[in-house]
Amino acid sequence: MSLVTISGVSKSHAAQHLFSDVGLMISAGRRVAVVGPNGAGKTTLLELITGDQEPDAGTITRARDVVIGYLRQEVAESKGRSALAEVLAGAGEASGIARRMRHIEMELADAEDEDELAELMDEYGRLQHRFEAMGGYGMESEARRILAGLGFADVDMERDIGEFSGGWMMRVALARLLLQNPDVLLLDEPTNHLDLASVEWLQGFLAQYAGAIVLVSHDRDFINEVANRVLELHDGSATEYVGDYADFVEQRTERMAQLEAAAKNQQRKIAHTEAFIDRFRYKASKARQVQSRIKSLEKLDRVAAPQRRRRSVKFRFPEPPRSGRTVIALKDIEKRYGDNVVYAGDLDLTLERGQKVALIGPNGAGKSTLLKILAGVLPFEGGSRELGSNVHVAYFAQHQIEALTPTRTVFEELNDAAPKLSTSEVRRLLGAFLFSGDAVDKRVGVLSGGEQTRLALAKLLADPANLLCLDEPTNHLDIQSRDVLEDALNAFAGTIVLITHDRYLIRSVANTIIEVNDGQADVYPGDFEYYAAKRGVDIETRGAVEGTQATPRGVVDVPPRPRESAKEASERKRREAEARNARHRRTRNLREALARTETDAASAERELAELADRLADPATYADPSLVRELVVRHNDARERVDALASDRDRLASELDVAESEVAPVSTR
What we know:
With 668 residues, this protein is α/β, with parallel strands linked by helices. The chain contains 21 helices and 20 strands. Strand 19 and strand 20 (554-558) form a beta hairpin.
């Protein structure tokens, strides 16, 4: 039985046409993932299903008494009751009955008249029986289970929801919706504000969901785990595919090839027919045949050649200046928020050039705090933070999107952040992020979430840095844009530290995993699979080899690769471990020599700067003998700095060669 039926639906917003002739049947047990580039109309389709918007053409039929629940990208702020009470309020009638029972309990305490007492007891008995029949007594435990799954501690469930950030408010709204258990569950980017553990819990919850699910998501792993249908919105049309995201990629590739072949074959036949018509148009003996062919062309249902995929964000990070081997070192870090101690003074962490680090761990463990300390945007109460030689830091977080000025144009926003770039260079950078033509004159306030994310990333690139600290950089980006961002991060020559709930991004980019928990940062010097093997965690790796890839001709779809067997995975990991050990043994002496040289170079540079300051002081020249001494020392220091810089570059080059010669073997 269909809960919602969409037939021939079309929709436009002002001059922007979104889609035409969309058809979709939503029934119990069907889990549909809606995918497509930003601006294709995915959120609009959800709002058409709820009735918040009306179609320009076509019909949407909803079954009688069907309950539709909708998790929007943004939730209204509220306060005045606990997170648990807010979630329970979503239980509808059962919640109302529970509230009436509590009121009667208070009235019973004050009742003195026997008739009044009897009446209240009768009413309480009827409500209690109805509440029990609706499963009301298990409602609170189920609400607590859902909140716990989404990352809430017991104490947080009793906090006023007005104290929570927007991300946690979104979790409360999601928990309320899941407890409501609607017939049709509409989810718009449900994983954007969740950590890895909460994403895994949610996908397990949805896998057992009895109703229908329609979700908009750019998380390929999440779609693979939840969806059994994929609806692609692209170039104004909608195409439904059976299966998960991996099946969709494979089927779409095959469908595009078939459409292209059919279009080419039809064009050959049309050309042959038109040539016949042109040749014999004025020959009387062929008039009947010519007219027959003309009519056949007029009636022909033409096969449209598949459109090229919409252009995605195409950029590479500018080549950053080369940093020293040690990029940053934290020592004995102590950080508190009031009485909440995040790091107690025993956090030590050192990152080296070329590391691409993913910070993982439960919510509240201190990942964002650590990232901000590394980026230098958050003070701390104790310990030290030392940047390595020639290190420049850039920090990206979602609050930078909020910091965009709504009244400025796109061009003005980037131009003010890039004083060293010419007007043409600013426009080229904006063009790489899909802002071209009139789009550069749009006001920031009218941009979509994806457009604002792209603009914030463009601002990040305006000043090249060799240490990137990224907090959820893929939020609001569509899948193709995420692919190109991943390629850019992989090609980046500097150091990266990122926080993301996107497991695909972690597997694609990270070569080091740092698990943050209980005030500690445990380093795992390998990729996500290496971390999983060390921690004994079973991680699904299917999504890591699917989707799209960049080629010199642009971003193209690629089919999924065969999944490794357990034996193949074990053998690959053994070879990678042996290669890592060999690399460590071979490069140990070089690493130690390079570290000593960098320390000596830093000391020599400080001495040279001090001597230059003294020689720049007019008072120095009152003593000629002191001037001669300082000049000699300055020349000696300059020679030492130059020599040590040469030694540092030589050792760094030798280390890079040594590491590449024994790079880990991979069969992926």
